[in-house]
Design a protein that fits this description.
It contains 23 helices and eleven strands. It has 676 residues and is α/β, with parallel strands linked by helices. It has two domains: 409 residues, Growth Hormone, Chain: A; 196 residues, 3-Layer(aba) Sandwich (Rossmann fold), CATH 3.40.50.150. The strands form two sheets. A seven-stranded mixed sheet has the order 7-6-5-8-9-11-10, with helices on both faces. It has a four-stranded antiparallel sheet with strand order 1-2-3-4. Strand 5, helix 10 and strand 6 form a beta-alpha-beta unit. Helix 2 runs antiparallel to helix 21, helix 3 packs antiparallel against helix 4 and helix 16 runs antiparallel to helix 22. The longest helix has 28 residues. The chain is globular. The N and C termini lie close together (12 Å). This is Spermidine synthase. One of its GO terms (biological process) is polyamine biosynthetic process.
Length: 676
């Protein structure tokens, strides 16, 4: 029998409980997404550890629920801490640091700003404290409604928060709009009693945050794409006009006339020299600000398909590039993910060029997946090979920094094309290299045979473990240390805020459900990124789809008589088995509409079953806020376990999730204990 909560009480707040719950939930998710985007744009470490703020947010949300019933006053601390966080980031930004071996990013540039060991713990703790406030406001609504009805409105609010942030991303709205929404939400949700505390701890900090973000918007002159904070400056270099483009404070691209670029750096012209036949139809992945397109046009090609994932970089190329390559009628632009374009297009090309398609950020919600990760797998190289005309060639160039990385990519190309590629190391400083392979050996003209990979070169990356920059099949020490510190801080924080751990002991199964569900969500995000692209639109749709599946599970549980928990656990494990058995290669081979139907079925069947299990268990929990808080803390631990994918691959996360669900089933309280 489902336990029913007392009817809504509205005397403590001027807003009725249901709209208040929707607003608080929407604000909670909106604030989480805004913090991830804004801190990552100013603290470069977070561009490569995007789930660091996510983990802090999960901790704060879990703590907020656990505070319900223990804290009497309003969570006025949240806007104050948010103000302190914004001041800290504005005053001490970190512009560049990618010079550490063993992690998933590279550069030779130096750091400006506080070191990672100092700034990252502060950001993590601040994110937890900021999100704890809205979560406490959400948690206070739960006891006023029946369990599943409260969860239902929480999900509706979360979907609203995603929709609002997605709309602002589509409009390229700067963070001052995010701050204004946060200030308005704080003003509505926090009651103005006593008035002095409300003005000093809510109104003043909130307006100060808006003012700081407005000043940043006006002074930085930044363009806000869905991925980056983009800034640029224009100058003359040896009489040549140059537009230097930085993203998230890191030098990223230069818009330079084709003639000057070819004169300054050999690598840009080598793909055309190594192709045995002068190319006419060219595909450029990573077209960016247009220099590679301008070079292709200068070589006399008749058609260029230019693929660029970031709309603002493409926009800058159209307006700032001295050669105006995007105005040429021979050029067709595609703002999408490069791997997704290869999987969808039916076009054939004389030359396919991967032109420095390295991103400076990770896919949101996936701890180790970069925007370009699926471009450098053996399967991606095969997809490029399949789109070459007879006599065509594939080429890629970049500053690879490590010689083993050049060898790994050359080995990947060899595995895909079946013969040795041309490998030109143009400069050993930064390992500036060009790798070219013809469809057949006769379609390429190498200056010298490739010597082959050196001993210790890792095998090609694959779609299941698309971690090009990870040399060894292990979790780098920096991640292990960071995650260990996160868990230690979380244990201390939970004990300080929620009291003895025995309070959550009856909900150990709900904790494991949270751990496993986060792994399922990660597998869904990465799977859809492979099947449909790593674009922000796909990412937003997947997160919304997960919440819709959860909401559907709640509605089914509320309105219909669902099978007993043991049966639903069986359905869940069957869904996980299906997800394990269906290969990505088969899904990629399907036409796009069928691929979408099959992918949704495979991904969302276990998610739906898992949330029917959660809804049934949650409806019988004796303490709604404590049980929900335990589940959210489990999600935080699941975020740490995501890094297992570095060792076992994303498919292996399904096995880990299955083991965790079996553990949750084993810890399921007996019916008598639940009734008590």
């Amino acid at each position: 029998m489902t336990l029913q909560a007392p009817q809504a009480r509205t005397g403590d707040h001027w807003l009725a409980v249901r709209p208040r719950l929707v607003l608080a939930s929407a604000f909670m998710l909106f604030l989480e997404l805004a913090l991830i985007r804004w801190t990552g744009s100013n603290i470069v470490h977070l561009s490569y550890f995007t789930n660091f703020v996510l983990l802090g947010s999960f901790l704060g949300i879990g703590l907020g629920f656990l505070r319900v019933g223990r804290a009497k006053g309003q969570p006025y601390y949240s806007p104050v801490v948010l103000f302190g966080l914004v001041v800290l980031v504005v005053m001490f930004p970190v512009t560049v640091d990618r010079d550490t071996e063993g992690v998933l990013y590279w550069t030779s540039l130096a750091t400006k700003g506080p070191p990672a060991w100092l700034i990252l713990p502060v950001i993590f703790c601040a994110a937890a404290l900021v999100l704890m406030g809205p979560a406490e406001l959400v948690g206070r609504c739960f006891p006023e409604l029946p369990r599943l009805e409260a969860y239902r409105y929480d999900l509706i609010g979360s979907l609203t928060g995603i929709a609002a942030f997605t709309a602002l991303s589509f409009l390229s709205a700067p963070p001052v709009f995010w701050g204004a929404i946060a200030a308005l939400a704080y003003g509505v949700l926090l009651t103005p009693r006593p008035l002095v505390s409300y003005l000093g701890l809510v109104t003043v900090p909130s307006l100060a945050v808006v003012a700081l973000l407005l000043a940043e918007t006006l002074t930085a002159g930044a363009l806000w794409s869905p991925y980056y904070k983009v800034t640029f400056r224009q100058f003359d270099q040896l009489g040549v006009p140059v537009t230097d483009i930085s993203v998230n404070g890191i030098p990223h691209q230069q818009a330079v006339p084709a003639a000057a670029r070819l004169q300054w750096e050999r690598q840009y012209g080598l793909p055309y020299e190594r192709a045995a036949t002068p190319p006419r139809d060219v595909l450029i992945v990573g077209a960016g600000s247009g220099t590679d397109v301008a070079i292709a046009l200068s070589k006399g090609v008749s058609r260029v398909d230019a693929v660029e994932i970031d709309p603002k970089l493409r926009e800058l190329g159209g307006s700032k590039h001295p050669d105006h390559p995007y105005d040429d009628p021979r050029v067709t632009t595609h703002v999408t993910d490069g791997r997704a374009f290869l999987e969808r297009t039916s076009g054939k090309y004389d030359l396919i060029l991967f032109a420095l398609p390295d991103s400076l950020t990770l896919v949101s919600g996936a701890s180790s997946l970069r925007l370009e990760s699926y471009l450098f797998t053996e399967e991606a190289m095969r997809a490029a090979r399949d789109h070459l005309k007879p006599g065509g060639a594939f080429s890629m160039y970049n500053y690879y920094r490590e010689s083993w990385l050049v060898d790994r990519l050359a080995s990947t190309v060899k595995a895909a094309f079946g013969h040795d590629p041309c490998v030109d190391v143009v400069s050993t400083a930064g390992q500036q290299a060009v790798i070219t392979a013809g469809l057949t050996p006769a379609a390429q003209r190498c200056a010298a045979p490739w010597a082959g990979p050196t001993a210790g070169t890792p095998p090609p990356a694959g779609d299941d473990r698309p971690f090009l920059y990870l040399k060894d099949r292990t979790i780098p020490p920096i991640y292990l240390i960071t995650l260990g510190l996160i868990l230690a801080v979380s244990l201390i924080a939970v004990r300080a805020v929620a009291g003895p751990y025995r309070r959550m002991r009856p909900y150990a199964d709900l904790f494991l459900l949270g751990v496993a569900f986060l792994l399922l969500e990660t597998k869904s995000v990465t799977g859809f990124a492979l099947l449909f692209g790593t674009t922000w639109v796909v990412n937003a749709v997947v997160f919304a789809g997960v919440l819709v599946a959860v909401l559907a599970a709640v509605e089914v549980t509320r309105r219909f008589r669902t099978p007993p928990l043991p049966v639903m656990y069986g359905v869940l494990l069957a869904g996980l088995l299906l997800a394990w058995l269906v290969p990505n290669a088969w899904l990629l081979s399907l036409p796009l509409p069928l691929r979408a139907v099959a992918a949704v079925t495979v991904a969302f069947l276990p998610i739906f079953a898992a949330n029917v299990v959660f809804a049934k268990r949650f409806s019988d929990a004796a303490d709604a806020t404590t049980s929900f808080g335990a589940n959210l803390l489990g999600a935080m631990v699941g975020g740490c376990l995501e890094y297992l994918a570095l060792v076992i691959g994303y498919k292996g996360l399904i096995i880990v999730a299955a083991v965790l669900y079996l553990g949750a089933f084993a810890l399921l309280p007996r019916r008598g204990a639940v009734s008590a």
